């Protein structure tokens, strides 16, 4: 992506099989963006199982429909968010009705590294061992809202911290009358509109429920303005904690 932002409406993308160079059964995906971050919408057939494998980058899953299973972790449903750190091996599958989710890879493409074919390289093994739990998850409905702390004391909106290490994932709800003036983020930022609508500035279309926005680090935009019923979105900060800079206080680097 060479543009500063991308508006993604998944329904406009075609379904295809997730590529596996080894020809093993994979699942249907629509590829929504590639580059520093990859986003797919994935649909697993009923009772699909992917044998033990790992990926070279951190992944995040936002569950949309059905039941997803991961050995040793349990089942995941809409409302759950799960992450797997680079190099962690997992066995995953779908329940009896299949499942659908957003799959996000932070840093690059994620080939299927089957454990019976590809040994985890020592440097990745080493790094993973220093990163705490190799996998994690949260149910958004069970998280408490807290105030997003703005060092400049400007009004913000409550957030739910889904993951506050690497990866960094939050859910935010904007009341209909809240407006965030021009600002920029220190890292590439991914927005998944889960409910309501949002405007991100005059240059961009209105983002509706189900839409995704990717914006590059350092690009100033605004105002962020929710629709008449507010907006709820999941935000992923790719590469570091969510870092919000007001453009009139801290001019953007570009
Ligand atoms: Fe923003």
Walk me through the structure:
It is globular and about 55 Å long. It folds into two domains: 8-141, Jelly Rolls (Sandwich); 143-246, Sandwich (Jelly Rolls), CATH 2.60.120. Strands 2, 3, 4, 5, 6, 7, 8, 9, 10 and 11 form a ten-stranded antiparallel beta sheet that branches. Strands 1, 12, 13, 14, 16, 17, 18 and 19 form an eight-stranded antiparallel beta sheet that branches. A two-stranded antiparallel ribbon has the order 15-20. A hairpin with a 7-residue loop joins β16 (188-199) and β17 (207-208). It has 254 residues and is mainly beta. The model has no long low-confidence stretch (mean pLDDT 97). The protein has one helix at residues 122-129; strands spanning 5-8, 16-17, 28-33, 37-44, 49-54, 58-70, 74-76, 80-84, 90-106, 113-114, 135-139, 146-147, 158-164, 168-174, 183-185, 188-199, 207-208, 212-215, 225-238, 244-246. Bound molecules: fe (ii) ion.
Number of strands: 20
- The CATH architecture designation of the largest domain is Sandwich
Overall body shape: globular
Helix content: under 10%
State which percent range the strand residues make up: over 45%
The end-to-end span amounts to: 17 Å
Quaternary organisation:
single chain
CATH topology of the largest domain: Jelly Rolls
How would you spell out the order of helices and strands? EEEEEEEEEEHEEEEEEEEEE
Structural class: mainly beta
How would you sum up the major sheet? 10 strands, antiparallel
Unreliable residue stretches: none
The total domain count is 2
Radius of gyration: 18 Å
Kindly state the mean pLDDT as a whole number? 97
């Amino acid at each position: 992506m060479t543009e500063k932002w991308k508006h993604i409406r998944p329904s406009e993308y075609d379904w295809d099989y997730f590529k596996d160079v080894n020809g093993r059964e994979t699942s249907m995906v629509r590829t929504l963006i590639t580059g520093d971050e990859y986003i797919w919408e994935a649909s697993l057939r009923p009772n699909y199982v992917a044998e033990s494998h790992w990926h070279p980058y951190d992944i995040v899953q936002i569950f949309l429909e059905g039941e997803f299973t991961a050995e040793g972790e349990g089942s995941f449903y809409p409302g759950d968010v799960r992450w797997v750190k680079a190099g962690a091996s997992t066995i995953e599958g779908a329940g009896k009705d299949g499942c659908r989710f957003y799959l996000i890879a932070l840093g690059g493409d994620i080939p299927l590294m089957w454990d019976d074919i590809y040994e985890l390289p020592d440097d990745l093994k080493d790094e993973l061992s220093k990163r705490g739990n190799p996998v994690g998850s949260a149910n958004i409905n069970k998280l408490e809202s807290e105030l997003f702390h703005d060092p400049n004391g400007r009004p913000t909106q409550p957030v739910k911290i889904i993951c506050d290490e690497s990866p960094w994932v939050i859910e935010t709800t904007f009341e209909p009358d809240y407006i965030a003036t021009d600002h920029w983020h220190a890292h590439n930022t991914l927005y998944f509109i889960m409910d309501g609508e949002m405007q991100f500035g005059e240059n961009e279309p209105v983002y509706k429920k189900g839409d995704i926005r990717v914006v590059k680090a350092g690009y100033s935009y605004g105002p962020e303005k929710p629709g008449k019923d507010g907006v709820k979105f999941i935000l992923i900060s790719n590469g570091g904690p969510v870092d919000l800079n007001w453009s009139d206080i801290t001019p953007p680097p570009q």
